[in-house]
Write the structure tokens for this entry.
Amino acid sequence: MSKVKYRYRKFSDYLKDRYGCRVYKVGVNAGFSCPNRDGKKSSGGCIYCNNKTFGRQDKPVREQIEDGINFTRKRCSAEKHIIYFQSFTNTYATPGKLEKLYNIIREYSSVVGLSIGTRPDCIDNEKLDIVEKFCEDYEVWMEYGLQSINDRTLNFINRGHSYGDFLNAVKLTRKRKDIKISPHVIIGLPGETGSDFKKTAREMGRLKVDGIKIHPQHVVKDTLLEELYKNGDYNPPGFKDYTSAAADFLEYLWPDTVIQRITATCPTDMLLAPEWLNNTGSVIKDVNEQLAERKSRQGRLFSI
Ligand code: SF4
């Protein structure tokens, strides 16, 4: 069987080229909270967020890392690992506490990278001083949850931060030349049309972000978005709408941006819609086929 040629820069290919072996991310829930849930920024959290989808933190961080390393070694023959502080806001603590926590990755010889998921309004120079120390020995990523560059949308989904906050985070992070930036964006946000996400895509192209995660909006139980969905005030994108929009998005990006994700998953007992969400293989295949049909690829419409 011939190998599929991807028309975008897949994260797995980037890692293979860089390390010459299989590198897997190990996601960790370090027990953080989020200022958008505890009332510091706003109350209630983002309208699509149900923290149960992040999984429970029922094991110490070291145990989670060891389990993840062992699992990916057995299941995927992984040789190296990137530890991904994933759940909630992973810079929401004092610099001293963050350093102690991130230092745990130094105990594992197969670890080559540190990835930190956080909000763009939860980073500052003191915290970046801590993160930057890891650049000497590790590949370091800051994954900033952005979702959209449209402040009206950010308000509506109750993000509790603005696009300006994201630009500020990018500015601060770019002063540390070895820290890579990977925003998270969502296609199909309530009230957004194709022109909104194309603006977000163009902006991510203009900023030449190092990586990106692109997700379809989905409806999870026990969220405000569930109410909108059940009242008929919101519908998530259909399969073809999403894959076509994701292909559009890729066309606007910088050709060197690494695509960390082009879809999302959700535990089936918590997912309300769309029903195709967890068919990740089909989504990836269709996005790539749409680019092929257009004789296009990531970066075709890139401009700065
Ligand atoms: S910032 Fe993240 S953890 Fe916080 S409410 Fe929004 S989605 Fe949930």
